[in-house]
Design a protein that fits this description.
By secondary structure, the chain is α/β, with parallel strands linked by helices. The chain has two domains: 57-195, 3-Layer(aba) Sandwich (Rossmann fold); 204-351, no CATH class. The chain has helices spanning 5-16, 32-42, 80-91, 106-117, 159-166, 187-195, 220-229, 243-252, 259-266, 275-291, 306-325, 332-351; strands spanning 20-25, 45-50, 57-59, 73-76, 97-100, 123-126, 140-143, 147-149, 154-156, 178-182, 204-206, 237-239. The strands form four sheets. It has a six-stranded parallel beta sheet, with helices on both faces. Helix 2 links the parallel strand 1 and strand 2. Helix 5 (159-166) packs across helix 6 and helix 11 (306-325) runs antiparallel to helix 12. It is globular, with a radius of gyration of 23 Å. Mean pLDDT is 89; it is low at 1-21.
Length: 353
């Protein structure tokens, strides 16, 4: 059945990709015990390599001022809208800056990182996307807000979020001390969360594998519901949220496709909550399974605004994923060149907000 020990082992081996795994622990030691438990269950071997922070991290006590921004500063907000507002504020005052947020294509991120790295940009303005393994010469992390919308509620940042984001400050050989501060002056919140010892992470998230289609007598939607409510036998796993999968299944049910096809479609990586991208997805399904029988039409750019180009980039990725998953002939070079073309246009827009 789905969710048993063998499924956990298959999932772990797919993630690790090695019989002998190296666990690199740096700032995430609260997940180490969980990882070891999963690996031991798989009967795999591992080495543990632990890293220690090379530069001290200090709370910046002085009040924050827009007029006293320094080279190497990173302003952290928690929405794309706020990031773009801050970027425009500084550009209007002649302060070149680099921006990073979740919707930004990876090619554009690299372009924006480069201008910060080479000093063309004085400061970085970013969402919490900066906390995901970014290694840049940042002198000071400035939290513009201490609360964020997490998809359900507006809440205060957790200790782990403050550490993960704040830990981007400091760079050995460039900034020997990393500073963290709050734009609203609440240094106690920053200090308390940096000093708090985090609770260990006790559960990993798993999703339904293709084995779910082997269950007979139920439509895939009901199998998913059954899988998501069934208690996991291994207590260090928890089930992923399958709401996006259900949205996709509801949107394609009138096509009456085989379950194996439905499974492939529901696991394609795209934003199901973006109506325009969802329509693009349904157009591909219609073309491939009903109209053209084996072909889909590449997307076209609908306009020149920032949001339109970002959405077009998502559609190109969806075209690529759809084609690869169903072995459809397409021109990879068109995908690569078109992604780079639109990325350059997005980067150009960000330079002149």
């Amino acid at each position: 059945m789905i969710g048993n020990s063998q499924r956990g082992k298959a999932w772990t081996k797919a993630v690790l990709g090695l019989r002998c795994a190296e666990i690199h622990v740096c700032g995430a030691a609260n997940a180490k015990d969980l990882l070891l438990e999963i690996i031991n269950d798989c009967g795999d071997f591992y080495d543990i390599i632990e890293y220690r922070r090379q530069t001290p991290l200090e709370v910046y006590e002085a009040p924050f001022s827009f007029g006293k921004i320094q080279n190497g500063d990173a302003l952290v907000a928690f929405s794309k809208k706020r990031v773009l507002e801050l970027s425009k504020y500084f550009l209007d005052r002649g302060v070149r800056n680099s921006v990073i947020y979740g919707d930004l294509p990876p090619e554009v991120r690299r372009m924006q990182y480069k201008t910060f790295l080479d000093g063309t940009s004085k400061l970085l303005i970013t969402t919490d996307a900066i906390g995901m393994g970014v290694n840049l010469p940042i002198r000071r992390i400035i939290f513009m807000d201490l609360q964020k919308f997490d998809g359900d509620d507006i809440r205060y940042l957790t200790s782990q979020e403050v550490k993960q984001i704040g830990g981007r400050a400091g760079r050995k050989g460039i900034y020997e001390i990393g500073y963290v501060c709050s734009a609203d002056g609440d240094v106690n919140f920053i200090r308390d969360n940096l000093e708090t010892e985090d609770e260990p992470i006790t559960k990993a998230v798993i999703g339904p594998s293709e084995l779910i289609t082997n269950i007979t007598g139920l439509p895939l939607r009901e199998k998913l519901a059954l899988w998501s409510t069934r208690e996991e036998k291994l207590d260090y796993y928890r089930k992923m949220d399958v709401r996006d999968f259900l949205i996709i299944l509801d949107s394609i049910k009138h096509f009456k496709l085989p379950e194996a096809v439905e499974y492939k479609l529901m696991t394609l990586p795209f934003d199901v909550n973006d109506a325009e991208v969802m329509q693009c997805f349904l157009k591909f399904v219609e073309e491939y399974f009903r109209t053209n029988r084996g072909h889909i039409t590449p997307p076209e750019l609908a306009g020149g605004s920032l949001s339109e180009m970002e959405r077009y980039y998502q559609k190109i990725n969806l075209f690529y994923s759809f084609s690869r998953n169903f072995n459809i002939d397409f021109e990879p070079e068109w995908v690569y060149s078109e992604r780079m073309r639109v990325s350059k246009r997005i980067n150009g827009l960000l330079l002149r907000l």
